[in-house]
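Tutorial, part two.
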Amino acid sequence: MTPDRYEVSPAGRRRLTGNLQRRNSKLWMSVEGGFALGGAFVAIGVVMILVGTRVLIVYLPPGGIDWNVTLLGVGFALAGLACWGTAWGQLTGNRSRLEATRRHPNEPALADYRWHPDGFEVSEWSALAKSLGGMAFATVFLSALTWFAFSAKDRIFKAVAIIFDCVLMFGWWHTARQLGRALKFGHSRVEFGSFPCRLPNPAVIRWQPFGRINRVNKGTFTLRCVEEFGESHGSGKNRTVTLVHEEIWSAKWILEQPRNLQLKDKVELRYELPTDARSTQLSADKPVFWELEVKLDLPGLDFNETYLVPVYGPAKTAAVATKV
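Running the prediction step on this input gives:
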C-alpha cells in the first residue's frame, strides 16, 4: 500500500508536546547508585510494614494493624523495586552494548543502542505493565494519604485528598484505555530497508498492519529527528527538571482516503533525508534520535505508536549495511 501524499515540515526547531517517552539509555545516576537507592527504599518499606503490622513494636500504641504505616511501607518497597528494575535494565543494556562492540567493531550503531537489525518492535502489553505498576504504587501511597486526611479534622486535608483521588481515578481510566489498546493491537513493529540507515541515503521503512487493523479512515506516518534534554526550573529545593523533546527535522506520508488493509499488506515508506541530518546518538548525555510516528484514524480505538529508527552517519570502514 502506498500513501497518498508526502510533505516535509518547514525548517526550524519546534518542541513536541504530549506523553513524551524518555529515550536516553543512561540512568540519572550510576548503576551502583540505582541498586543502593532501591535497597534503601526496600529496607525502609520492609521496616515500616513490620512496624505497621505490629511485628515490630516501635513507638506505636498497642492495637491492630496501623494501615497508614503499612501502606506507606508498601509504597516505599514498590519504589525500591522500581529502582532495582531500572538499574538492572541499565546494567544488562551496558553489557549488551559492550558485547555488540566486541562482536561488531566496525558497526558503532550497535554500541550506541540495543538494536535488532531486522526491525524495531513495540509491545502494548509492556506499556500496560508499566502503567499498572505505576498506578499500583500511586494507589497504595494515596490510600495512606486519604486514610490520614479523613482521620484528621481539618477540611483542607480532606479537600487535598479528594483532589488527588480524582487524579488517581483519571489515571486508572487511562490505564483501562491502555488495556483496550493492548487487547486490540498487542504488539507492533517496523522493518528497516537496511541496517543502519546510512546518511545521506534515503531511509526506507516498512510498517505492517496487524490482525485487528483492517480498515483505516486516514492517517500519517511521520519520520522526525529529535533532540532530548532536561530543562531546569527554579533553584535549590524548588528546582525541577522537565523532559524536553525538540524536533529538528520531520517529513510525513499522509493517507487521505479510507482504505481496507490485509495482514499481508505492508506500507513501504521512503524518506529523503536532508544533507545536514544529524546522526543518532542515544547513549550521549544529550541524546539525538530518529523516530517514526504512526497515527491512524480507525473504527473504535485509534492507533498511535512510535518506533526508533537507526539513522547513522556514513560507515567509517568498508563494512556493508545489512539488507533485510
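The radius of gyration is 24 Å. In part three we will examine how such features are distributed along the chain.
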